[in-house]
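Hi R.,

Here's the chain you asked about this morning:
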Amino acid sequence: MTTKFGRWLLAAMTCVPLGVHADALGTVEKEIAGLEQAFNAAYLANDLPKYFAYYADDLVAIFPEGRTDLKSYRAEWTEFLKKGNRLTGNTITDLVIRVSPAADEATASYLVAVRTRLADGKLTDEKFQETDVWLKRAGRWQVAHVHYAQATPATPPSSTPPAPAHP
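And the predicted structure, written out as tokens:
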């Protein structure tokens, strides 16, 4: 009886996929890393059609100004550039990518240094923390959620020596 059950269990296990192979996950990580590079390059190039094509129609975005959707973000960013403002720097570092077990969702988080030349000629340099959630739908990766927050500098260790312990 144990032998029949063991054969049945083995047969059942070979018919049920146990997740995506590690090689596939590594491939997805590489694909998302390439997409992040292209996505950020389109942003830096101020190429609105290319940049916005990376977003899903049902985007949920959380920016320092609050929560928004694709339609509102597209209108706001288009207006910003129409006024003569331009990105001149966009450097990402510390990219970390996590892929879902089914390899149909990937979360990319990183630090980004952004330089903007405002219409009045002033340059701004800002640092942000960004998280992009990529979903694969109908064979195509798109950003369905983005969280973009001002990066605050880490607090340096105190230069004051600790107080001596009392006996």
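The chain has one domain: 19-150.

Let me know if you need anything else.
M.
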